[in-house]
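User: I'll paste a sequence; please echo it back and then give the predicted structure.

Assistant: Echoing your sequence first, then the prediction.
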Amino acid sequence: MKKFAALISIVMAVMFSAGLVVSAEMPGKVMLDSIQKAKPPVPFDHKAHAEKRAKDCQTCHHKDTAGKEQKCSACHKATAEGKTVSLKDAYHTTCKDCHKKDASKKAPTKCDGCHQK
């Protein structure tokens, strides 16, 4: 019985530690401000979107393998390159399309909803 309890303790410790590592790497609130010109930057709560909205990381990080997600700007640059759309178009397409599908109808779909002054 002691061996079983020790095994359960080890398994729980490993699972808890893995959760801390994953959540430690996930950004919280970030400011999307690298490409804006005419509109204000967009405050983005990555953690809230990841926990409450996205089914999994690949919903947004579509080309990255699980556990190796990068910033959008790692692939999408200020201007389109080949078949890769620009960062602005990637944000607008991914974010707005998801917001339009929001069943609660609370997600912003107009410019000023995300680009707050």
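Residues 16-24 have pLDDT under 50 and may be disordered. The longest helix spans residues 2-25.
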